Amino acid sequence: xxxxxxxxxxxxxxxxxxxxxxxxxxxxxxxxxxxxxxxxxxxxxxxxxxxxxxxxxxxxxxxxxxxxxxxxxxxxxxxxxxxxxxxxxxxxxxxxxxxxxxxxxxxxxxxxxxxxxxxxxxxxxxxxxxxxxxxxxxxxxxxxxxxxxxxxxxxxxxxxxxxxxxxxxxxxxxxxxxxxxxxxxxxxxxxxxxxxxxxxxxxxxxxxx
Length: 209
What we know:
CATH architecture: Roll
Shape: globular
Number of helices: 5
CATH topology: Nuclear Transport Factor 2, Chain: A
CATH class: Alpha Beta
Largest sheet: 6 strands, antiparallel
Structural class: alpha+beta
Number of strands: 9
Low-confidence stretches: 1-58
Strand content: 25-35%
Mean pLDDT: 79
Radius of gyration: 17 Å
Distance between the termini: 13 Å
């Protein structure tokens, strides 16, 4: 399911970013990453922009920055590599919850305009709701020691992490629950940029490994 949500062009660009980087830092899921230095800037997906999320149905409007930071894990408020990693990890773990519940308040607040992955997850979740499809499972667990970070020349940061994804089940109207996607390890590439208030997601690639 995750791998099908990303455009082929985005996959090629993100893969190029990761492969062409002059340096990477391996970190665990906890603990503070070491400083990163790279001598060769690499391309990013799209230009920066301010966040303009669309509120989900029934919501009063998008989250204010202070409300978002109150929801995010400790450390996400930092404007350094650690803040970027904490935010990227949170976004990856939020993904299956959004797919199941179609609750977009936090998802929208973290998504920059032009994020294809973000929009596709949103569209798929809304479609499931409209079709009466119930989704269960698909939770992800970060694999310790797999996080990599690559700084970009426009102050964005690429965060790569491997997760262990659980089986995903769906129940369509009038049918029994069935296994939709078997669990597997998935590598997420999350491109984030700090906008002065918080780290936001430029785009994401997810590939089964």
